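Final report, results section. Input specification for complex C-07:
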Amino acid sequence: MFEEMVTGRNTRPPNPKKRSGRRVGPSNSHGAILHTARTLFGERGFDGTTMRGIAQAADVDSALIHHFFLSKEGLFLAAVQNAFVVPGLVEMVTEGDPEGAGERLARAFLAHWEDPEVRPQVEALIRSVRAFEEADSALCDFVGGEVMLDVTTALGHGKAEVRAALLGVQLIGIVYLRLVLKVEPLASMSVDDLVCYVAPTCQGYLTERL
Amino acid sequence: MFEEMVTGRNTRPPNPKKRSGRRVGPSNSHGAILHTARTLFGERGFDGTTMRGIAQAADVDSALIHHFFLSKEGLFLAAVQNAFVVPGLVEMVTEGDPEGAGERLARAFLAHWEDPEVRPQVEALIRSVRAFEEADSALCDFVGGEVMLDVTTALGHGKAEVRAALLGVQLIGIVYLRLVLKVEPLASMSVDDLVCYVAPTCQGYLTERL
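Structure output:
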């Protein structure tokens, strides 16, 4: 459902019948809207963000946002779609020393969330839980769905769904305390230190007998 | 701050100068208001719940809620104050076999959250993050503050703040996926099974070398 909501959009700008004085349709508007949407949804959540506010901050006409993304929900899902999608995750975790799988998994996500284009996507998703069904669904996909389950299935130690869910617990907990609540000492801890602390837990959930 | 906000309230009903037709001030109104507030805040979060809605659902006059709790924020904090407070936690974890400390900690919280008066408090807190500062602060207290830090300090394995935060990560992650998002297989897993799965992680964060 997540995928269906964010694909198949027309990426060409609409024919600008009337000019409102704002920038309408330069070739990078699509990216500018997504960037602005990530920032505002991340700071204020889905309910606290308006399409008008995004249009103003991105300096585009509201009609262009509707043209690209159809609705606020469509824009939100397009804006947050990479929050938990680490490119090449399965290979990264499963190839190499099996004893280091947990560390590689932890480092992959923590490094992913340091990306300034990704971090607000994560915050936006967490802050928008219960705002609308697809926001919840996107988070559920992360823990139960394609992201983690592919890894635990590939490793082949059984109970793949339980392992995926337990890894989701660990990583959502980190996201929540480090990125959203900004609890110390987690918030200002280096990625390396945090990887050291949580790698044994990830290793256990990935490979040890449950 | 959390404590200050919820103590020192007058628990006697106000002098009912005008009758509105609703029940004003029977001796159990205080408890009925708290019970109703927990349910509604848990379902809808802080922003989605009104004082009027709570008064109607609890069948009391709004003035009585203001008299007891002064404000919506005061009512919220009073309603959720036991979300993470497990009576006798430090003794429960530190006394007995040191190898079983993690299991006892996990079981204590998971059993606490099965209580039908406690579960909505946890959901209310999680769903109200960023709604107002004290809601965040109450959650932060849980992980950095008195609850977990007392346990990790009492066990005396060093890095008490880091250990407390890592335990907070694990438990908030469980709360989030099991109680709020209701992700399977976590949501319908028995407390005993879940304790088995997460006890080694809690044990590691409590006692192993970091």
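Chain A touches chain B at residues 45, 47, 127, 129-130, 136, 139-140, 143-144, 161-162, 165-166, 168-174, 176-177, 180-181, 183-186, 196-198, 200-201, 204-205, 208, 210 (CB under 8 Å). The first helix of chain A runs from residue 2 to 6. This concludes the modelling results for the funded period.
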